[in-house]
Structure formats: structure tokens, C-alpha cells
Amino acid sequence: MNIVKKNDYLFNNVSSIRGIGKKISKYLKNKKIEKINDLLWHLPYSYTDRREFVSLDRLEIGKIFTIKVKVVKYNFPRIRNLPNKIVCEDEKGKIDLVYFNSREGYIRKILPINKWTIVSGKIGFYKNRYQITNPDYVTSIDNIDYVKKLIPRYSLTEGIGEKSYRKIIEKVLENLPNIKEWHEASFLKKMNFLDWKTSMQKLHEENFEKEINSNVYKRLAYDEIFSHLLIMSKNRKKIKKYKKKPKIFKKLISIKIVNSLAFQLTESQKKVINEIENDLASKERMFRVVQGDVGSGKTIVALLTATNVIESKFQCAFMAPTEILAKQHFELAKKIFKNIKINVALITGKTDHGKKKEILKNLKDNKINLIIGTHSLFQKKIEFNKLGFIIIDEQHKFGVKQRMSLAKKGGNECDVLLMSATPIPRTMMLTFYGDMDISKITEKPAKRKSVVTLSKPEEKMNELWPFIRKQIKNGNQIFWICPLIEESKILNYSSAIKRFDFIEKKFPKKVGLIHGALKKEDKEDILKNFLNKKIDILVSTSIIEVGVDFPNANLIIIENSNKFGLAQLHQLRGRVGRGDKQATCILLFKGSLSKNAIKRIKILKSTDNGFLIAEEDMKLRGYGDISGFQQSGIKYFKIADPVHHEDLFKLAENQIKKIENNLDNNKYDFLIKLFDKAEVFSEL
Length: 684
Ligand code: ADP
Ligand code: MG
Fold this sequence. Notes:
Blueprint: H1 3-11, H2 22-30, H3 36-40, E1 46-49, E2 64-75, E3 84-89, E4 94-99, H4 104-110, E5 116-122, E6 124-126, E7 129-133, E8 137-140, H5 144-147, E9 150-153, H6 162-174, H7 185-191, H8 196-205, H9 215-241, H10 252-260, H11 267-280, E10 287-292, H12 298-311, E11 315-319, H13 323-336, E12 344-347, H14 353-364, E13 370-373, E14 387-393, H15 400-410, E15 415-420, H16 426-433, E16 437-441, E17 452-457, H17 464-473, E18 477-481, H18 489-506, E19 511-514, H19 520-531, E20 537-540, E21 553-558, H20 566-573, E22 584-589, H21 595-606, H22 610-621, H23 646-659, H24 669-674, H25 678-682
Parallel strand pairs: 4-7, 10-15, 10-16, 11-13, 11-14, 12-13, 14-15, 17-22, 18-20, 18-21, 19-20, 21-22
Antiparallel strand pairs: 1-9, 2-3, 2-5, 3-4, 5-8, 6-7
The site of magnesium ion (MG) has 6 residues, from α12.
């Protein structure tokens, strides 16, 4: 066989395997297994140990043994429902094999009289005799090695049966093609990695469960990480390939604005602004994400850099996830552009028809320099005259493809900047934003006090009322976050209503309620009422919009706080303490706390560094459970794990940096195909 054909084997449909008929292939399809390759990534979840091989005087009841016995006598009762019994022995003892629902002919065939046979199964004891009921394996003695071993168990066998599935997967593993190695021999040697085929075979053979850091597992995880980052790098190249006109500016407007601000930019903000400005002035298109914790001051960074684009005679679009946030950005822009000739417009779902028409016309005639809005900004009918910069705020749920299509829509002259308020661990950063350049705002504005974080058992809730009363008297506002009841919008909603009624009785006319079942517009109205201080307490499920600045909100109370993840608690806490006053976060908890919960509270109390918290969160919860990304429904890895394989990410990142400028050959084609990454690429 030639190599190409051999490689194709993995991408054939499973039905091409002997032993997989219509029924099994349908069953597998339901489990999303269509190609032979898919079978490889369904790893055994545990093993059956059939290695215990002893003479019959050394059996232990309840354990699985493999034995070598001679069939001595059959006992086929003529009464229905009684099992067939086969008496066997070796030099040291006797044992009965018991078969329910079996035919005599079958038994005589698999267990011929006077012949030595290998049997494996769980040892039972009945009427003073050892027995095995329905043995798992009965086979000839030259076949002993097939049975006397650790045998992988696959979750798939629930519908197929251990022995049949074993036959299928063993055949597949045996038939794996010899593939030309894509990693350097020196690298494999240094890492103690085996070739792909051997690693793949061993991954199924050995007890990988405890071996996520074994060299076999790591070699394959590395392949996967490598292929993912490689695709990201290719995407990035693709974006950078189209050359744009560099934006030309002297920062005249932005310097003027900076001088008029009531505060000093942090060093971090300055650094990020600088990075963005370099991109704007370069021939390559910007495709950058700014990460900064809640309250780190991303908006001003976006607006200041936008002024450079405007100075360079291009238009800017600033997209926010909600109307209220778009409006807040708009107000800020108007304020800081007060004495500057920049034309800003706001467009949302609520903008009335006439006004909208006017805005669209002005946009087309290049009379608007900066347009701020919700996702309606990217509707087809919106035409720009000379769009040069797209800013997307709080956007952490965009997949790679969506991002690329946005970049495309903007045209070749358009620079793209994402801003995300969800700090995520470094490995996740590479996974999700590996195709983008990354800027990080790591400091908070100097004067900001960190939020005091306290924990309290729920039974002591009564102690809160005087504290809340005092806060209201001092002009402060309060968020009350209701327990999150998983998988039930209705329950969340009813518990929030109950809590609202309860608090409303204590503070009449001062309380508002917001939850996920409300319409978007109603939610925004309530948030506006809170922003305008028409209410003092806002009872809410965990849906409070990200990013809205409530400068008077100083106290946040989070019920049943151990239901939330660490990073989520940090995000919630970030809703308060945006003004100058000291803010407080109170974590209520039910009953006694688990070790993990205590640890989490401790971390929250000890730091307000979102990046650090994100790392800890991932360690505590494991990858795959990080809020937000999980919801995006994108499963990035088959076997790699950003928590356990952090070192491999670093290695892959460095390796790709070395080779990414010389990627003309097809060396990695198979690798990319193996991990299904080719599709992502070809669809762009
Ligand atoms: P986020 O990064 O969460 O989007 P914002 O841009 O909404 O943060 O900023 C939060 C608040 O901090 C705003 O009121 C903003 O005016 C203020 N702010 C931004 N930068 C600074 C700074 N360097 N010093 C003091 N306050 C700042
Ligand atoms: Mg923001």
C-alpha cells in the first residue's frame, strides 16, 4: 500500500470496518463517531484487570481471575430455567462454570471435554464450590495472552458489548498507518516521545487515566495543541497578508484629551495605547484583543485610540453588547470630545426611524466620525464612507469564525480591536485568541480602593439590614444577587421574586428586580432606574450586564455564593467599587462550607487581580468548566488539557514562532486533518 492510501484509512467511514454493520454504525453516529479517526479519540475510561492467573487452590471470591482448567464433566439439567453446569479442574482444585440461557451444542463447542482451556471471569462461591457464572472469556490455551491482561473499557461498549468493541478497536489500532513524522527527531528524543503510531496504540493499551502526564499521552496532546496553534497562526497570517494604508496621525486630539482628563492614565493603559497606535500606523491590519479586568479603564483606551484613526481621516465603529452600555460609552465620548470637532452618533434598536435614516445618511457622507451602537451596527444596510477601525467591547463569546467574518466585513483598511473583561488563564488565551495579538491592562487606576470582601452564613442575614440602611442613608446603592439554580430559568426567576418581596417589605419603594425572564428592553429600563438612583437596591439573578458603570453601587451581596465559580464571583464583585468610596462584597453561604469553598473565599479575599483569580479558578475547577467558554459550545480539544499541559502550550507556541514564516510544505497536513482543524481553516 502506498502512504496516501494508508493515511486515508483513518478518514474512512467506520462502516468500512469489518464487524461494523448498519446497526452499530448508526449507534456510533449518534455518538458523533463517523470516521475511523473518531474512534481513536474515545479513550478507555477504565480497565478490567485479567492478569491474576493462579491455580484453583488460590482463588479469591469476588475477584476476577484468569484460569487454566480441564473440562471434566457436563451437567445439562433437563428442567427449564436451571443453568448448565460444567465441572472443571486443574492439579490443585475444582471449579464449576455456570451458564444461564445457553445451548448444549454451544457449550460442547467452546468447552470440549478433557481439553485444557483458558477461562476468565469473576469468582463466585455456591454450595461449598467455586464457580464462575457466564465467564467473560473462554478460549484455547494458545490464546492466553489475549485474555490475561489489562483490558480497556470503553463507554461506547454500553451499546456494543465489550468483546465486539474490543475486536473493532484492536483492528483499528493494528491497522494504523505509518505516518511520516512531523516533529523533529531531536525534539522527540529530548521529550522522550515515541512516534505517533506507537503512542496512539499505547494510549489505548495502558492505563492512561492516571497518565495524563505520561509521555505517551503528552506526545498526542502536544500534537493537538500544536495543530490548534498552527491553525491560529495561519489565520493570523491570512489577516496580515492584505496590506492596508498605514494610518497617519500626530496624536493631536488624543494628547489634548489626555491633558483634560480628571485622572492620569495608568502605565498599563499607556502601554496598551502605544501597542494599538503602533498597529494603526503599520501596514499590517490590526487584529488585537485587549484584556483588562473589570474597572481597569478599557473604554478610555478605546476612545483615545479612535481619535487617532479619526485624525487620519477614517471613520470608527464602536460596538457594545447592550444598549445601556452603548449609551454609557456615547455619553463618555460626548463628554471628552466636548471642545473637539469630532462627530459622534449613537445607534441602537431604540433609535427612531427618522433619526436612524439621518444617521445612516451622515455615515455614508462621512459626516460622522465615530458611531457607537449595539450589534445593529453591523447590519447590511449600514454603509460607511471610510471605515478604518472597529472596536468591539466585552466580547468574549465570539468564536474564531465570527471574528474572522467581522474582520472581513470591515474591509481591508479596517483595523479590529476586541476588548474583553474576562481575564482568562494564559493557556486559554492562546486557545481562544491565538490568532490575535494580545494586550493586557494589568493595573487598576491607582486611587481605586479594592473591594472589602466578607463571608457570612445565611442564618445571620438579619445582621445585614442595619448595614444596608446605613449605606442607603449615605447615598450608596446595593446589588443583591440571588442564588443561581442550575438549569432552571424558572426557578431562578421565582427565587429572585421571593427575595425581592422579602427585601421590598423591609425597604418599601426602594427595591427593583431584574432577571433573565424579562424582555431585553424591560431589563434595560430597570438598569436605567438603578443608574438614575430611582431605586437603591437591585435584586438580580447573576445576569447583571457586564461593563455598565454604576458609580454609586457600593455594596454587593451574593447569596449562596458557593454556587458561583471563582472568576464569576470576581466579575460580580467588580460591579461595585467603581467610584471613589470604599465598596464591600458580602458572600452569603448556606450551611457548612466545603474545603474547596473555603479555599475560594480565601483567594477572593486575598486578591483582586482578575488574571490571578482566573488561573486559580481553572486549577480548582479544571478546564472545560470555565464559565462563558463552556456556554459557547465550542469544544476545542479532544485530549489536550490547558490545566495539565501548560508546559506543552509554551513549547508549541515557541516552536510555531520558529517555523511560522516557512510553512510552505505540506508537512503538517495530516496532523491538521487528524484533529479536525482543517475545516476551521478552509471555511475562512
Ligand atoms: P472597564 O475596563 O471595566 O471597561 P471602564 O472603562 O468602564 O472600565 O472604566 C471604569 C471607570 O474608571 C470609569 O469611570 C473610568 O472613567 C475610570 N477610569 C479609567 N481610567 C482611569 C484612570 N487611569 N484613573 C482613574 N479612573 C479611571
Ligand atoms: Mg468596559
